[in-house]
Amino acid sequence: MRAYLRPDGRKGIRNVVAVAYLVECAQHVAREIWWPHRGRGAHLIGFGGCYPNAYAFRMMSQLCRHPNVGAVLLVSLGCESFDRDALARLIRESGRPVELLVIQDRGGTRPTIDAGRAWVERSLDALGRAPRAEMGIHELIVGTICGGSDATSGISANPAAGRAFDLLVQAGGTAIFEETGELIGCEHIMARRAARPELAPELIACVDKAARHYATLGHGSFATGNAAGGLTTIEEKSMGAYSKSGRSPISGIIKPGDVPPAGGLYLLDVVPDGDVRFGFANINDIAEIAELIACGSHLILFTTGRGSVVGSAISPVIKICANPQTYRRMAEDMDIDAGRILEGKATLDQVGREIFDHVARAADGEPTASERLGHQEFALTYKSFEPLGPACLPRAVR
Amino acid sequence: MTAAPNATDPRLLRLSPEDNVLVLLAPVAAGESLRIDGRATPMKSAIPLGHKIAARAIAAGEKILKYGAPIGTATRDIAAGDHVHTHNLRSDYLPGPLEH
How far is C-alpha A318 from the geometric centre of its chain's CA atoms? Predict the structure, then answer.
């Protein structure tokens, strides 16, 4: 695979100029800057809150320094609380070109849009000359998520994605699965896969926290569409979602923004710590994808039964369709037809290998279905986290 | 391929040997008869792809097993071949989808 070599030594599989708004009030201007360049590698990300939030700052700092990102334009209104100078400094220290435009200092909407568009134009041209380097599968980080799940997700696409994860981990790569609220009911089965004995209780504690969080809020990670698709309980949805993790030992637990220290399989804990605040743990699939990417994911495997159409800013999304009826209706949005497993036309192992091969091709630059359709979704909200416990990570260093 | 006397219809998937529910790999119409462990079982209602039916009679209070794991508790007696869903199965963890 031919990667883009960043000045900090990390290797990316896409060459993105990120246009980032630092408060909702700057979004229109940032969007106008991004729009004409959206098909050429400019992506729009940002945080809408005015009140500061450590999690959102960490997410933004990790996303702006993601290996798929080569340059960053920050768009600030001027009076928001986001620490824009600290973010700009971190990006500069990573060796990436960064520009900070403050709308109130620039004289308003139009001068900022003009300056921003010119900067993005120059940066895209400069990034076209970014140095390239060979990249192996063992250097790849892949995240997985399921969305728009139905009862087929857990019997075709999810276990097939799990097989692909097994191949990735065997090759020395890094795999991340997440959404502890969708692991409720499988925590004890999962804990038996802990790579170290001290990790097992941490895995259970993670899921217990998610169960408490959802119980306090009075809802589960269970939408009406899930029931229409034949899923009845959160445990049932969980067992299906859990199969995305494959069969490798679990090397550690990470939280949003933590990059796994070595190859292996990691659980991303997305449920906030402390008292339940700020409403839903994840308001939608897009916010979870952003968290997987902030943990360094170069690529996302997205399994769907009902038929999700989303992609993402920064990292390509590979869509794996579980339901053969959905695939026939929405084939253009899908990369992999895992429903063939249900029709007896392919085995789990065959589709798992197909997903793994697709990952290698997408990492080498082949656009995914959502990229071809222009999807670049992004969402980031308020959360709070405590630092990881000492048992959560292996001692090995990447 | 001739079906063994205790065969189950190929449209039904048993994910784990101990499961007491089977998954439909294709939609079935009301009145259709599906073979479960050799016994012809009529479907009382139309059931979509991916939904579950009882592999045997299940008593109220019994755990429902899928993937070899409990996915909740039966809230009423369920006959073999009955659709198993929100009307007769509830979560042991969280309230399932609310019936509005």
Answer: 12
pLDDT in tens, A318-351: 999 999 999 999 999 999 999 999 988 998 899 9
Whether chain A has a CB inside 8 Å of the CB on B51: the answer is: yes
Q: Looking at the partner chain, which of B25, B71, B90 has a beta carbon nearest the beta carbon of A342? A: B25
| Alpha-carbon torsion angle A322, A326, A329, A331, nearest 10 | -10
Give the Cβ contact number of residue A171 at 10 Å: 14
Residue ranges per structural domain of chain B: 12-90
Domain B12-90 -> CATH class: mainly beta
Partners of A236 on chain B (C-beta within 8 Å) are 66, 71-72
Q: How far apart are the first and last CA of chain B?
A: 46
> With an 8 Å Cβ cutoff, are A235 and B92 in contact?
yes
Pick from B15, B66, B94: CB nearest A214: B94
Question: Contact A45/A56 with Cβ under 8 angstroms?
Answer: no
B17-46 tens-digit pLDDT: 899 999 998 899 999 999 999 999 999 999
Q: How far apart are CA B66 and CA A151, in angstroms?
A: 11
Domain boundaries in chain A?
A: 2-133, 137-372
ipTM metric: 0.90
Residue A389 in 3-state DSSP?
coil
Contact predicate B25/B47, CB 8 Å:
no
Q: Taking a C-beta distance cutoff of 8 angstroms, is the pair A320, A335 a contact? A: yes
Can you identify the CATH homologous superfamily of domain A2-133?
Answer: Response regulator (3.40.50.2300)
pLDDT digits (tens, 9 = 90+) for A50-88: 999 999 999 999 999 999 999 999 999 999 999 999 999
